[in-house]
Specification:
By secondary structure, this protein is of the alpha/beta class. The chain contains 4 helices and 10 strands.
Length: about 160
């Protein structure tokens, strides 16, 4: 991996909460700061493509993400994304040739002390370096084929589509 391209789309990972009513905005992406703090041994570039909750991503937004990746010279791409529609985006990206793309996010904002963001980013960085081309999801301590995973909102985790609630 010469250089890791990181595309940020928003989602919980970058949310900033303002009050007890859970009013929020999507702030500046934190993935670059996290990787700099960890003193990673590779070059990366952060492209803050959009700042949206994934429930508000449209098919047009997904096409924008796809076009950005397809036009890039990068072969290894990490995408931070909201968890509610991450699978849908990954499925749209899966057939882009010669690109290894790993989508990750957080169930709790990166700004929170009990966040899963750093763990998920670490899993995604490792995965993007060793997986074959295609789109993958790194969440809940596992790497998933997007055709075989779902977000279980009740349990607040990702799991195999063969599991039952």
């Amino acid at each position: 991996m010469k250089k890791l391209l990181i595309i940020t789309t928003g989602g919980t990972i970058d949310k900033i909460y303002f009050d007890d009513m859970s009013d929020y905005q999507i702030g500046e992406p934190l993935v670059g700061q996290i990787l700099e703090h960890l003193q990673v041994g590779f070059d990366f570039e952060v492209n803050a493509l959009m700042r949206k909750d994934s429930l508000h991503l449209t098919d047009e937004d997904r096409q924008t993400i796809r076009s950005e990746i397809a036009a890039s010279d990068a072969s290894h791409i990490l995408i931070t994304h909201g968890t509610d529609s991450m699978v849908k985006t990954a499925l749209l990206l899966a057939d882009i040739p010669d690109k290894t793309m790993v989508l990750t996010g957080a169930l709790n904002p990166a700004r929170f002390r009990d966040t899963d963001a750093v763990f998920n980013i670490g899993c995604a960085v490792g995965a993007v370096q060793v997986l074959p081309p295609g789109a993958w999801i790194a969440m809940s301590g596992s790497i998933w084929d997007p055709r075989k995973v779902r977000k279980n909102r009740g349990k607040n985790r990702f799991e195999s589509v063969t599991q039952t609630d």
